[in-house]
Design goal:
27% helix; 7 helices; 286 residues; globular
Length: 286
Protein backbone atom coordinates (compact mmCIF):
# COMPACT_ATOMS: atom_id res chain seq x y z
CA UNK A 1 0.00 0.00 0.00
CA UNK A 2 2.83 2.38 0.92
CA UNK A 3 4.63 1.54 -2.32
CA UNK A 4 1.48 2.38 -4.28
CA UNK A 5 1.18 5.78 -2.54
CA UNK A 6 4.82 6.64 -3.30
CA UNK A 7 4.46 5.69 -6.97
CA UNK A 8 1.24 7.72 -7.24
CA UNK A 9 2.92 10.79 -5.70
CA UNK A 10 5.87 10.59 -8.13
CA UNK A 11 3.51 10.25 -11.09
CA UNK A 12 1.50 13.26 -9.90
CA UNK A 13 4.70 15.31 -9.56
CA UNK A 14 5.72 14.53 -13.15
CA UNK A 15 2.26 15.53 -14.39
CA UNK A 16 2.36 18.88 -12.55
CA UNK A 17 5.95 19.74 -13.49
CA UNK A 18 5.26 20.92 -17.09
CA UNK A 19 2.38 23.07 -15.85
CA UNK A 20 4.61 24.71 -13.22
CA UNK A 21 7.28 25.42 -15.81
CA UNK A 22 4.75 27.08 -18.09
CA UNK A 23 3.67 29.35 -15.24
CA UNK A 24 7.23 30.23 -14.21
CA UNK A 25 8.18 33.87 -14.81
CA UNK A 26 10.72 34.42 -17.56
CA UNK A 27 13.68 36.67 -16.73
CA UNK A 28 13.29 39.78 -18.87
CA UNK A 29 16.98 40.65 -19.07
CA UNK A 30 20.46 39.19 -18.71
CA UNK A 31 20.70 39.39 -14.92
CA UNK A 32 18.53 39.62 -11.82
CA UNK A 33 18.21 43.17 -10.53
CA UNK A 34 19.24 43.09 -6.88
CA UNK A 35 20.83 46.48 -6.24
CA UNK A 36 17.93 48.93 -6.55
CA UNK A 37 15.26 46.81 -4.78
CA UNK A 38 17.58 46.49 -1.76
CA UNK A 39 18.60 50.14 -1.60
CA UNK A 40 17.89 52.39 1.35
CA UNK A 41 17.47 56.18 1.42
CA UNK A 42 20.67 58.21 1.41
CA UNK A 43 21.12 59.39 5.01
CA UNK A 44 20.90 63.07 5.84
CA UNK A 45 23.64 64.77 7.79
CA UNK A 46 22.89 64.92 11.50
CA UNK A 47 21.31 68.27 12.30
CA UNK A 48 20.73 70.01 15.61
CA UNK A 49 18.55 73.04 16.14
CA UNK A 50 21.59 75.03 17.28
CA UNK A 51 23.38 74.22 14.00
CA UNK A 52 20.75 76.05 11.93
CA UNK A 53 21.68 79.73 11.91
CA UNK A 54 19.27 80.67 9.10
CA UNK A 55 16.36 79.02 7.30
CA UNK A 56 13.66 79.82 4.77
CA UNK A 57 10.65 77.73 3.76
CA UNK A 58 9.64 77.78 0.10
CA UNK A 59 7.13 76.02 -2.12
CA UNK A 60 8.16 75.00 -5.63
CA UNK A 61 6.34 73.61 -8.65
CA UNK A 62 7.87 70.83 -10.72
CA UNK A 63 6.31 70.97 -14.19
CA UNK A 64 6.33 67.43 -15.62
CA UNK A 65 5.97 68.77 -19.17
CA UNK A 66 9.58 69.98 -19.09
CA UNK A 67 11.96 67.51 -20.69
CA UNK A 68 14.28 67.27 -17.69
CA UNK A 69 11.30 66.24 -15.54
CA UNK A 70 9.99 63.55 -17.91
CA UNK A 71 11.49 60.70 -15.82
CA UNK A 72 9.03 61.66 -13.07
CA UNK A 73 6.04 61.59 -15.46
CA UNK A 74 6.69 58.52 -17.59
CA UNK A 75 5.68 55.74 -17.99
CA UNK A 76 2.01 56.70 -17.86
CA UNK A 77 1.21 52.98 -17.51
CA UNK A 78 3.43 50.62 -15.53
CA UNK A 79 6.16 48.83 -17.51
CA UNK A 80 7.62 45.95 -15.52
CA UNK A 81 8.94 47.44 -12.29
CA UNK A 82 8.94 50.99 -13.68
CA UNK A 83 6.15 53.42 -12.85
CA UNK A 84 5.62 57.16 -12.71
CA UNK A 85 6.06 59.15 -9.52
CA UNK A 86 2.35 59.62 -8.89
CA UNK A 87 1.65 55.92 -9.55
CA UNK A 88 4.39 55.01 -7.09
CA UNK A 89 2.89 57.33 -4.48
CA UNK A 90 -0.54 55.73 -4.90
CA UNK A 91 1.03 52.26 -4.81
CA UNK A 92 2.77 53.20 -1.57
CA UNK A 93 -0.50 54.43 -0.09
CA UNK A 94 -2.30 51.20 -1.05
CA UNK A 95 0.44 48.71 -0.19
CA UNK A 96 3.11 50.25 2.04
CA UNK A 97 1.08 52.26 4.52
CA UNK A 98 2.09 55.72 3.27
CA UNK A 99 -0.34 58.26 4.75
CA UNK A 100 -2.02 60.74 2.38
CA UNK A 101 -3.11 64.10 3.76
CA UNK A 102 -5.79 66.58 2.76
CA UNK A 103 -4.95 69.59 0.63
CA UNK A 104 -6.90 72.00 2.84
CA UNK A 105 -3.51 72.86 4.30
CA UNK A 106 0.00 71.53 3.82
CA UNK A 107 0.80 70.89 7.46
CA UNK A 108 -0.06 67.16 7.40
CA UNK A 109 -2.80 67.48 10.01
CA UNK A 110 -5.72 65.71 8.31
CA UNK A 111 -5.22 62.18 6.91
CA UNK A 112 -7.56 61.14 4.10
CA UNK A 113 -8.79 57.78 2.79
CA UNK A 114 -8.27 56.01 -0.54
CA UNK A 115 -11.84 56.77 -1.54
CA UNK A 116 -11.18 60.47 -1.06
CA UNK A 117 -8.21 60.17 -3.41
CA UNK A 118 -10.50 58.50 -5.97
CA UNK A 119 -12.91 61.43 -5.66
CA UNK A 120 -10.04 63.89 -6.16
CA UNK A 121 -9.14 62.07 -9.38
CA UNK A 122 -12.77 62.09 -10.53
CA UNK A 123 -12.98 58.28 -10.33
CA UNK A 124 -16.55 58.23 -8.99
CA UNK A 125 -19.80 56.71 -10.29
CA UNK A 126 -21.57 59.05 -12.68
CA UNK A 127 -24.59 58.88 -14.95
CA UNK A 128 -24.32 59.65 -18.65
CA UNK A 129 -27.21 60.04 -21.09
CA UNK A 130 -27.05 58.97 -24.72
CA UNK A 131 -29.40 58.07 -27.58
CA UNK A 132 -29.60 54.41 -28.54
CA UNK A 133 -30.14 52.96 -32.02
CA UNK A 134 -33.92 53.23 -31.60
CA UNK A 135 -33.78 56.96 -30.88
CA UNK A 136 -34.52 56.57 -27.19
CA UNK A 137 -32.59 58.42 -24.50
CA UNK A 138 -30.81 55.99 -22.23
CA UNK A 139 -29.07 56.69 -18.93
CA UNK A 140 -26.13 54.59 -17.80
CA UNK A 141 -24.06 54.70 -14.63
CA UNK A 142 -20.34 54.10 -15.01
CA UNK A 143 -17.34 54.31 -12.69
CA UNK A 144 -14.19 55.74 -14.21
CA UNK A 145 -10.68 54.69 -13.24
CA UNK A 146 -8.08 57.10 -11.96
CA UNK A 147 -6.28 58.77 -14.83
CA UNK A 148 -2.94 59.52 -13.21
CA UNK A 149 -1.55 60.89 -16.49
CA UNK A 150 -3.60 64.02 -15.72
CA UNK A 151 -1.04 64.90 -13.04
CA UNK A 152 1.12 67.49 -14.81
CA UNK A 153 2.81 69.13 -11.83
CA UNK A 154 4.05 68.50 -8.31
CA UNK A 155 4.19 71.02 -5.49
CA UNK A 156 7.31 70.63 -3.36
CA UNK A 157 7.39 72.01 0.17
CA UNK A 158 10.96 72.36 1.40
CA UNK A 159 13.18 74.11 3.93
CA UNK A 160 16.43 75.80 2.95
CA UNK A 161 18.88 76.33 5.80
CA UNK A 162 22.49 77.17 6.52
CA UNK A 163 24.24 74.51 8.59
CA UNK A 164 27.07 76.20 10.43
CA UNK A 165 28.44 72.86 11.64
CA UNK A 166 29.23 71.86 8.05
CA UNK A 167 29.31 75.42 6.63
CA UNK A 168 26.90 74.65 3.80
CA UNK A 169 23.54 75.80 2.50
CA UNK A 170 21.28 72.78 2.23
CA UNK A 171 17.65 71.92 1.47
CA UNK A 172 15.34 69.21 2.74
CA UNK A 173 12.01 68.37 1.19
CA UNK A 174 9.11 68.19 3.62
CA UNK A 175 6.17 67.24 1.42
CA UNK A 176 4.97 66.44 -2.10
CA UNK A 177 1.59 67.15 -3.66
CA UNK A 178 0.50 65.98 -7.15
CA UNK A 179 -1.48 68.54 -9.13
CA UNK A 180 -4.12 67.34 -11.58
CA UNK A 181 -4.96 69.22 -14.80
CA UNK A 182 -8.28 68.19 -16.32
CA UNK A 183 -11.36 69.32 -18.23
CA UNK A 184 -14.96 68.64 -17.29
CA UNK A 185 -16.94 66.25 -19.50
CA UNK A 186 -20.45 66.97 -20.70
CA UNK A 187 -23.47 64.88 -19.76
CA UNK A 188 -22.95 62.76 -22.88
CA UNK A 189 -19.47 61.81 -21.74
CA UNK A 190 -17.75 63.97 -24.38
CA UNK A 191 -15.03 66.44 -23.48
CA UNK A 192 -15.97 70.03 -24.22
CA UNK A 193 -13.13 71.40 -26.34
CA UNK A 194 -13.92 74.94 -25.20
CA UNK A 195 -13.97 73.97 -21.53
CA UNK A 196 -11.52 75.67 -19.22
CA UNK A 197 -8.75 73.48 -17.87
CA UNK A 198 -9.15 73.01 -14.15
CA UNK A 199 -6.28 72.59 -11.72
CA UNK A 200 -6.67 70.59 -8.52
CA UNK A 201 -4.30 69.52 -5.77
CA UNK A 202 -4.93 65.83 -5.10
CA UNK A 203 -3.23 64.98 -1.79
CA UNK A 204 -0.08 65.61 0.23
CA UNK A 205 2.41 63.04 1.44
CA UNK A 206 5.10 63.50 4.07
CA UNK A 207 8.31 63.15 2.08
CA UNK A 208 10.53 61.52 4.77
CA UNK A 209 7.91 58.78 5.17
CA UNK A 210 7.94 58.03 1.43
CA UNK A 211 11.73 58.03 0.96
CA UNK A 212 11.88 54.30 1.68
CA UNK A 213 9.83 53.36 -1.38
CA UNK A 214 11.39 56.15 -3.46
CA UNK A 215 14.84 54.67 -2.81
CA UNK A 216 14.09 51.19 -4.20
CA UNK A 217 12.20 52.11 -7.37
CA UNK A 218 14.28 53.10 -10.37
CA UNK A 219 13.90 55.97 -12.80
CA UNK A 220 14.69 55.72 -16.50
CA UNK A 221 18.17 56.87 -17.52
CA UNK A 222 18.31 57.74 -21.22
CA UNK A 223 22.11 57.40 -21.32
CA UNK A 224 22.62 54.05 -19.59
CA UNK A 225 20.08 51.31 -18.84
CA UNK A 226 22.54 49.67 -16.43
CA UNK A 227 22.86 52.82 -14.30
CA UNK A 228 19.41 53.84 -13.28
CA UNK A 229 18.83 56.32 -10.50
CA UNK A 230 16.00 56.02 -8.03
CA UNK A 231 13.32 58.56 -7.24
CA UNK A 232 15.17 59.30 -4.01
CA UNK A 233 18.32 60.05 -6.02
CA UNK A 234 16.40 62.49 -8.21
CA UNK A 235 15.24 64.50 -5.20
CA UNK A 236 18.35 64.07 -3.04
CA UNK A 237 20.65 65.22 -5.87
CA UNK A 238 18.03 67.72 -7.10
CA UNK A 239 18.03 66.40 -10.67
CA UNK A 240 14.84 68.26 -11.57
CA UNK A 241 13.79 71.72 -12.66
CA UNK A 242 11.29 73.83 -10.74
CA UNK A 243 10.23 77.37 -9.94
CA UNK A 244 9.28 79.02 -6.66
CA UNK A 245 5.61 79.92 -6.18
CA UNK A 246 5.55 80.77 -2.48
CA UNK A 247 7.73 81.56 0.51
CA UNK A 248 7.12 81.79 4.23
CA UNK A 249 5.90 85.29 5.09
CA UNK A 250 3.95 87.20 7.70
CA UNK A 251 0.85 87.41 5.48
CA UNK A 252 -0.38 83.84 5.97
CA UNK A 253 2.39 82.48 3.71
CA UNK A 254 0.57 83.91 0.71
CA UNK A 255 1.64 82.78 -2.74
CA UNK A 256 3.43 84.93 -5.30
CA UNK A 257 0.40 84.88 -7.61
CA UNK A 258 -1.64 86.64 -4.92
CA UNK A 259 0.30 89.90 -5.22
CA UNK A 260 1.94 89.79 -8.67
CA UNK A 261 0.94 88.65 -12.15
CA UNK A 262 2.63 87.47 -15.33
CA UNK A 263 6.26 88.45 -15.80
CA UNK A 264 6.39 90.04 -12.36
CA UNK A 265 5.62 86.65 -10.79
CA UNK A 266 8.62 85.11 -12.55
CA UNK A 267 10.84 87.99 -11.47
CA UNK A 268 9.63 87.66 -7.88
CA UNK A 269 10.40 83.92 -7.91
CA UNK A 270 13.92 84.66 -9.18
CA UNK A 271 14.34 87.33 -6.51
CA UNK A 272 13.53 84.81 -3.76
CA UNK A 273 15.87 82.25 -5.32
CA UNK A 274 18.69 84.82 -5.56
CA UNK A 275 18.19 85.97 -1.97
CA UNK A 276 18.70 82.41 -0.73
CA UNK A 277 21.83 82.05 -2.83
CA UNK A 278 23.19 85.46 -1.83
CA UNK A 279 22.84 84.70 1.87
CA UNK A 280 25.39 81.91 1.57
CA UNK A 281 27.72 83.93 -0.68
CA UNK A 282 27.67 86.93 1.66
CA UNK A 283 29.02 84.83 4.52
CA UNK A 284 32.43 84.57 2.87
CA UNK A 285 35.16 87.01 1.93
CA UNK A 286 36.92 86.60 -1.41
Amino acid sequence: MKKFIVVSFIAFAFICAPNQESQAQVLDGIYVKEHVPARKPAPYKFLRESDVMWSKRVWRVIDLREKINHPLYYPTTQIGDRMSLVDLMIWGINNEGITPYATDDDRFTQPITRSQIDVAFGAVPKTITFTDENGNEVSKTITEEKNTSEVKQFIVKEDWFFDRQHSIMDARIIGLCPVRWYTVESQTGDVDEDATIRIQQVFWIYFPEARRIFSNHEVFNQFNDAERRTFDDIFFKRKFNSFIVRESNVQDDRGISEYTLGLQSLLEAERIKKRISDYEQDLWNY
